[in-house]
Amino acid sequence: MTPPFLTSRRARSVAACLAGAMSGVAPRAQTLDVMVERPTEVGYVALHQAARDAATDQLALIIASHPDDRYVMPAAYLRFAQAWNVAALLLTRGEGGQNSLGSTIGDELGWQRTLEAEAGAAMLDVRVWYLNRQDAGYCRTAREALELWGRDDTVVQLARLLRVIRPDVVLTTHGPDETHGHDLALLEVLPDALALAAEPEAGAAELAGLAPIQIARALRAPSATELPQSREILPVEQVDRVRGDTYRRLAYRALKRHRSQEPIRPMDELFEPVVPLYPMRRSDVDDPESWTLAGVPDAFDRLAASRAAASTKLRRRLQDLVTLVGDGPQMIDEALELREELAVLAAEVGPALRRRLERRIAALERVLIHAIAVRVRASVADRGVSADRPFPVLVRVQHAGGPRLRNLRLRAMGGAELRLEDPDSDLLQNVPETPFDVRGTYAPPDAAADRQAWLAGVFRADTFEPPLRLECRLDVVDPETQTRRAELSLPVVLPVDARPAAEIEVTPRALLLERETEAQSIAVRVTRHIRAPLSGLLEILGPPGFEVGGSPVPVHMTAVDFEDFRFDLRVPPGLKPGVYNLHLRLDSLRSIVPLHKIDVRVPANTAVGLIPGVDDAARMVLRGLVGDQLEILEEEQLALGQLDLFDTIVVDIRALRERADNGVWRAARAAFPRLLEFVRLGGRLVVFYHKDTEFNAAAAGFEGWPYPLRLGKGRVTREDAPVEMLDPEHRLLTYPNVIRAEDWDGWVQERGLYFPEDYADAYQEVLAMGDPGDEKMRGALLYATYGQGEYIYCALSLYRQLKSLHPGACRIFANLVSR
What we know:
Elements: H1 9-21, H2 43-53, E1 59-64, H3 72-81, E2 85-90, H4 106-124, E3 127-130, H5 142-149, H6 151-165, E4 169-171, H7 181-198, E5 217-220, E6 232-234, E7 239-240, E8 245-246, H8 247-255, H9 267-270, E9 275-279, H10 299-302, H11 308-320, H12 328-346, H13 351-372, E10 375-379, E11 391-398, E12 404-412, E13 417-420, H14 426-429, E14 436-443, H15 451-458, E15 469-477, E16 484-493, E17 502-507, E18 511-513, E19 519-528, E20 534-541, E21 547-549, E22 553-557, E23 562-570, E24 578-586, E25 589-597, E26 608-611, H16 617-626, E27 630-632, H17 635-640, E28 648-651, H18 664-670, H19 672-680, E29 684-688, H20 692-695, H21 697-700, E30 709-716, E31 723-725, H22 731-734, E32 752-759, E33 764-765, E34 767-769, E35 781-786, E36 789-794, H23 798-802, H24 807-817
Parallel strand pairs: 1-2, 1-4, 2-3, 4-5, 18-25, 26-27, 26-28, 28-29, 29-36
Antiparallel strand pairs: 5-9, 6-9, 7-8, 10-11, 11-14, 12-15, 13-14, 15-16, 17-19, 19-23, 20-22, 20-24, 21-23, 24-25, 30-32, 31-34, 33-35, 35-36
């Protein structure tokens, strides 16, 4: 199915940029770990929860816009306090945000946030579904978001998943007071999707073959005016007796799995101690029953009256199962009997009731797994394996004893193959109580050879399943009759990532040549992920007229994990602006590095110091603009270095954001008196956008400006919003490159963000821009002289454009750093 955003306004501008500049951004080394770390519960806590799960079969679906939204709050409460089955449906994968862990954006960031969402959901035992709407950054209105997503298609796809998931209750923590267009769009389309999902004659092809569903409860967060009327309030500050902590804190721990969003705000700032809810559909407001989650019928409420007596007894036994948690043998016997009785009942009822009873049967299977304490773990003998060729795997099986386990079966999932060394071993037929190992060879799916397409398919499905996994099945048999009483199924995720046997990583990942440069150096790192030797001929091939010094070079790696190679590239004199591809080859490995010849220049011998954030776009472009005249300023240089060696110092985006991995942000904040003195004595300081909490003196604790400057939350979200150059002759727009109207074409995601909202008259306003219908903001680019030097604050979203070496963005950036 074609994603709806491919025909949207925003996608058209993305496509224009891709066609002009992304022909290709070099594929970077991608060692994305597709094994989700699943900190799921085990032991007594898991056994207790499974026993409670057997007594319920209601399913709540919590819908949110982004992976790091507050859906974890009601999820924790309903899952643990009420023992409901809980699913989460995320509209986007969060790929339009920023990344605190590194420079990846777009799909790679969306994949990372998917893994974070899965890890957090695993802590809450919640299954996550994805609607796969595009996250192209902040939207002001629902209209803007739905123009991007396609309103009709979003309604249909929501209705489709409602029919697939079949929840009893739908709720969202988003409400009418939200300011993000994604959240407002969700609130707009969800009532329509609920109605479409219930419509028997719905004509959409996507709904064909899926039974209609009438969802009894649909709740959302109330507005400030509706809050006093809320009748359903989830008390998430209550303490869970088994886990010994509040549901709010359990939810917060799950949210903290989103490491790409660090630092996570304190819990009390993010989460209220209660979750109020309000009817989503206007027709439900006058219906008292629709205001509450209480009284949602379960399977036994829906059974025919003729089964009332038997079902009442069975329900009571299921409710009492939790009282046997301390008595392992009796609990196992009772769980086996209950499972058999529910299986008989499920075979006699219709599909809707059968689905509910199967949830209870699955819970009883978990009771048996935890009561018997079956553990199946996989490991790989090699310190590194490849996802594109077979590798040895070891599976360890152990359990605490009790019932007889027989007939262990292992099989690979997702199109892979598992070949056991001894498929006829007696250990597989008669599982001993002592731990034992099963050895075999795992052959990844054929699709893994085309790794990028394979990963894209994995991360575009409705749900995420680790692609490298096994299924273990075991029979629980009666010790006297030797008949099978139950079959247990345990998923086993292989502890390997999706890397290939070897990788080529190029620095810089895309080459920029300014108008007067005809040579560039390229560093190539070859990384070996397997124990086997890696041999071949590494060569770089360019278009006719290009010369590559040092190519080809022999590679033979046996005792090292990586090796670096340097090449000197010379381009033909008078090369016209455009994009030229360099082809790298090493045996079967292939990579393309785009070389962008851009009509841009920087004065000779311009020395630039860069205070880095986590993104590498500014570093990559500055290497092309000033070459060896670029120096990365780390903690020691910021505190003690000789700053007057530089013409310009750049504070990269979010470089002042608190980070756990290093202290550059702290050193940069502390160094601002030195940086401002650098300006006063004749230097130029360029500060890219930051959040108000990272830059404003009252919140961040330092003064990052020569004259008062306070940031707000203003932004221009339309990347095609008109840009007015207030003074076309301003030095930032004319030297050394004349900025033209076409330099603003083909931008992606947004124009700018975190605009200054209050600043001194000493600042010159250079640009004005605004979203349609909004008053134009004039603080996207501010310039001031201070002493003998210059200070610039730039709120433009340049870094997203620089990642694809957008020519206009490169010219603007060159002007910012050119004294």
